[in-house]
């Protein structure tokens, strides 16, 4: 049986600031960088990302770039999305479309996102980010800021905020 430990070792994953484990797998070095309001970025980057039973939460964060998520192995991962207009959406990324699970999930830039391992040992995904990911383009969620912006989702915000997210 393939375990979370197997993927961490085999793929060389490291702990991620959002929770879980990751490793960058691609950046478009062969193309000119593109200008964005925050500076020049790769046209595309990608990572492997793993949630485990001991690190089951991807804490609230906001990315400027659009991100495609692809489920590869393991158990389903539930995504919580807070749209700029305050609506909350959920989606489950997994291998069973008969259960409403998605193999691919697109999250536009500017949408707050949190995820959690729905059940089981681990869920392995990859993400493709365009324009390419840069830490300067990501904001980790602060409970007090998110609650002020989305007061109708207070419980959900507290459930998935990193307790000591750096500013």
TrEMBL record:
InterPro entries, A to Z: Cupin_DUF985 (IPR009327), RmlC-like_jellyroll (IPR014710), RmlC_Cupin_sf (IPR011051), YML079W-like (IPR039935)
Pfam family, one: Cupin_5
Start and end residues of each DUF985 domain: 6-140
Protein name (record): Cupin
Protein source organism: Streptomyces camponoticapitis
């Amino acid at each position: 049986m393939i375990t979370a430990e197997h993927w961490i070792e085999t793929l060389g994953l490291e702990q991620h600031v959002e929770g879980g484990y990751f490793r960058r797998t691609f950046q478009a070095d062969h193309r000119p960088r593109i200008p964005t309001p925050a500076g020049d970025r790769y046209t595309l980057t990608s990572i492997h990302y793993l949630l485990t039973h001991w690190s089951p939460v991807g804490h609230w964060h906001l990315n400027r770039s659009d991100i495609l998520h692809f489920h590869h192995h393991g158990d389903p991962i539930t995504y919580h999305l807070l749209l700029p207009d305050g609506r909350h959406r959920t989606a489950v990324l997994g291998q069973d479309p008969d259960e409403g699970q998605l193999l691919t999930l697109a999250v536009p830039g500017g949408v707050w996102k949190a995820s959690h391992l729905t059940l089981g040992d681990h869920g392995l995904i990859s993400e493709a980010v365009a324009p390419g990911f840069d830490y300067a383009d990501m904001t980790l969620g602060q409970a007090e800021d998110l609650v002020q912006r989305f007061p109708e989702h207070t419980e959900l915000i507290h459930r998935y905020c990193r307790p000591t997210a750096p500013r």
